[in-house]
């Protein structure tokens, strides 16, 4: 293997600030009720490592995200196991930090193999997801 070869993976990264207790943000991002208010009402979600969350978006195929990490009030990580081919094998993380009553939510969608038109569309939609999260709280 050539150690000089560096494979650059694309990632989407956004931050938003929400003035609520950090536990409320964590609860919304890890529960069926919370994610239904933010993302889609067609879902099956459990806050358990190893559980595969399911998200439906109308006529599109179901997106399945395996819960990889749950660190209460700190970090959530999902791995996409079924969705659009460009998403399969990518990861989504939410990092939470509270300072002076304001929670910084950093959303990363990492492991993209290339920057495509679909990547650009998803980049926009993840920003809208964080806006929806803020509005829900």
TrEMBL record:
SUPFAM superfamilies: Bet v1-like. Residues 19-137 form the Activator of Hsp90 ATPase homologue 1/2-like C-terminal domain. It comes from the Bacteria. Signal peptide: none annotated. InterPro entries: ASHA1/2-like_C (IPR013538), START-like_dom_sf (IPR023393). Belongs to the AHA1 family. This is SRPBCC domain-containing protein. It comes from Flavobacterium lipolyticum.
């Amino acid at each position: 293997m050539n150690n000089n070869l560096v494979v650059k993976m694309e990632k989407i990264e956004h931050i938003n600030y929400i003035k609520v207790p950090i536990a409320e943000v964590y609860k919304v991002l890890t529960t069926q009720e919370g994610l239904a208010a933010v993302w889609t009402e067609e879902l099956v979600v459990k806050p358990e490592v190893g559980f595969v969350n399911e998200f439906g978006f109308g006529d599109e195929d179901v997106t399945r995200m395996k819960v990889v990490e749950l660190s209460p009030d700190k970090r959530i990580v999902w791995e996409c196991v079924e969705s659009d081919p460009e998403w399969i094998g990518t990861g989504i993380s939410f990092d939470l930090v509270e300072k002076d009553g304001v929670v910084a939510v950093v959303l990363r969608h990492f492991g993209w193999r290339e920057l495509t038109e679909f990547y650009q569309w998803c980049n926009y939609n993840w920003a809208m997801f964080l806006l929806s999260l803020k509005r829900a709280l």
